[in-house]
Specification:
The complex is a heterodimer of chains A (297) and B (274). Chain A has 297 residues and is an all-alpha fold. Helices cover 71% and strands 1% of the residues of chain A. Chain B has helices spanning 7-32, 54-62, 66-97, 103-115, 119-131, 139-146, 150-160, 166-173, 178-189, 191-207, 210-215, 224-234, 239-259, 261-273. The chains are: A mainly alpha (297), B mainly alpha (274).
């Protein structure tokens, strides 16, 4: 009995930094934001308790709803496209030919570029005056496009940034592809299955845990999207590229409505929790886990 | 499984990818070496001639704090990196090696916090830091990350689990406790993952934009990321200057990447597989 408690004590001692950090920088602030989400609070004068008004106001707040819809666009349209692109690129990289390491190195690089630097690169490429794309267009006689100033282009441009910086997930997919047992493909070849057929009936099911992992990561990435949206055109034009986080940031630090902003944070938290839970719950219908099916996978 | 397309086709696919991924970076380098006038030439010049570094001169001239921001970013990211390998490895060791019963439950919490976006607590954290006098200091950018970042706890634990337990037992028989196992057995065998951990936490901190934007007010204390935003606000039409600033922000990471590539790959793959 005593040795068990000693073991617990030693364990807690080792993880003490985490416990302190978790309580002070997570539980405390989370509780605080829960409390303030029921208040009208400008961070200077004492909070006024207003019950559920903040949460009720959200449903009437056109800008909030628009930013929310934009984020849903990213999550439901951009995420599947991005993940498909990542799989495609990892398949392209999954060859053993001369110079392949060079290609892998370069493909991964954009993943490491700081978001602010990426936004600047996008300005150089898509800037209205002097941007690379517009200069090309003009050189062939097509009129310039105001990429950042157009409601139709502002969101897709942000998606292209996400796609360009896919290097990390691509590496994970690449590792997953290499983990697919070669004898499965040999058996399929003997049965006369085409390469495309092999991809859909062997490769995709075998890497489905990685697809799940990547889907969840990308969803969370887009729910948190802030820097790109703020720096490209500050969420504009007409809030067409405003994201959930950008709107929350503006609510707090521009409009000084901290209580209202924290209500938004809580909604976001619950949404992410539910989405992650749904993806995890439905995963056993479409994700193949080797350990479930016994040894001979 | 390797797809055996015909080799030329493979190279064509790889070159298209190369164009997508390296093209924008190449354009950045090219723009950085132009004069402002050259950026408006038709058709666009890929290899500017003459090459000039004048953009860097204009950058440091219009942004006198540039050198300072770079130094700040190094100091902050370096502290975060060091702190991460010190503390997260301790915490991960506790989860990987002790036999306490509360391990499972507490590790589930670690994993749960991994899923929760940091942004959710940023606004209350701002209020907290303001009240305890941390606002407009580097502490909010360093301390919370150092005190156990769930991502690195997870990464290190995964690695520690691959080290055979027989080594622990041998140390135990020789009279060593957990501390000896941690410092004499686990740490020396974990240098690759510790290097990965340092590099990743350095990069995360270096590229972070949101936290310094919210928690730092004085321009002198700012990091390069937020500094770049100020450059964007000030000289949005001087493309070579923008490119030069952007280049300086990605240069340190690029250098680390080219010298320590295998650590990057190890780190990414380690978290992804299981």
């Amino acid at each position: 009995m005593t040795s068990r408690w000693k073991e617990e004590g030693t364990f807690l001692l080792f993880i003490l930094p985490w416990i302190v950090g978790f309580l002070v920088f997570f539980v405390g602030p989370a509780a605080l934001s829960m409390i303030y989400s029921f208040a009208d609070y400008n961070s200077v004068t004492p909070p006024q308790w207003i019950g559920f008004d903040n949460y009720r106001d959200l449903f009437k707040d056109q800008i909030y709803l628009k930013s929310f819809c934009n984020t849903l666009y990213f999550v439901f349209i951009a995420v599947p496209i991005t993940v498909m692109f990542q799989i495609l690129i990892s398949v392209v990289l999954n060859v053993e030919i001369k110079g392949i390491r060079f290609f892998r190195t370069i493909y991964y690089l954009p993943y490491l570029v700081p978001p602010v630097a990426t936004v600047i690169i996008w300005l150089l490429l898509f800037g209205t005056d002097g941007g690379f794309v517009n200069q090309l267009l003009e050189a062939v006689g097509i009129p310039k496009v105001d990429w950042f100033g157009s409601e139709g282009w502002s969101k897709p441009l942000i998606v292209t940034i996400g796609i360009w910086s896919s290097g990390g997930p691509v590496l994970i997919f690449l590792a997953a592809l290499k983990g697919v047992p070669a004898q499965l493909y040999e058996a399929a070849r003997i049965d006369g299955a085409s390469r495309v057929r092999q991809f859909f009936t062997i490769t995709l099911p075998m890497i489905s845990p990685t697809i799940l992992f990547s889907l969840v990561l990308q969803m969370i990435y887009y729910f948190q999207m802030f820097t790109e949206s703020r720096l490209l055109n500050n969420g504009g034009p007409d809030y067409s590229s405003s994201t959930y986080m950008l709107n929350t940031y503006n609510t707090a630090f521009r409009d000084m409505k901290f209580g209202y902003a924290m209500a938004q944070s809580w909604i976001l938290f619950v949404i992410i929790l539910i989405l992650t839970w749904i993806v995890m719950k439905t995963s056993n219908r479409w994700v193949y886990y080797e350990s479930d099916k016994g040894g001979d996978a | 499984m390797t797809y055996r397309f015909k080799t030329p086709l493979q190279y064509v696919a790889l070159l298209i990818g190369l164009f997508i991924f390296a093209g924008p970076l190449f354009w950045l380098l090219s723009t950085m070496l132009k004069t402002q006038e050259q950026t408006f030439r038709y058709p666009p010049e890929f290899l500017p001639h003459p090459l000039t570094l004048s953009a860097f001169g204009r950058l440091f001239e219009s942004m006198p704090l540039m050198g300072r921001w770079i130094g700040n970013s190094f100091a902050i990211a370096g502290s975060v990196g060091l702190g991460t390998i010190l503390f997260s490895s301790l915490i991960a060791f506790g989860f990987a090696r002790t036999k306490a019963r509360s391990r499972k439950f507490l590790f589930a919490i670690v994993l749960a916090t991994l899923m929760i976006p940091a942004q959710v607590t940023l606004i209350p954290l701002y209020l907290l830091y303001r009240d305890i006098g941390w606002y407009d200091t580097w502490l909010p950018l360093i301390v919370p990350h150092v005190l156990g970042n769930p991502y690195f706890i997870f990464l290190f634990r995964q690695f520690f689990l691959t080290i055979p337990r027989e080594l622990d037992e041998a140390t135990y028989v020789d009279g060593g406790g957990y501390w000896t196992i941690y410092s004499r057995v686990i740490l020396p065998l974990s240098s690759p993952i510790l290097v990965s951990g340092f590099i990743f936490s350095f990069v995360f901190s270096w590229t972070d934009f949101f936290s310094p934007l919210i928690f730092i007010q004085s321009e002198k204390l700012q990091t390069l990321s937020v500094g770049l935003q100020m450059i964007m606000g000030q000289t949005s039409h001087d493309f070579p200057v923008l490119a030069a600033g952007s280049f300086l922000a990605l240069l340190p990471i690029g250098v680390i990447y080219f010298f320590a590539q295998r650590y990057f790959i190890e780190g990414v793959v380690m978290t992804g597989i299981k």
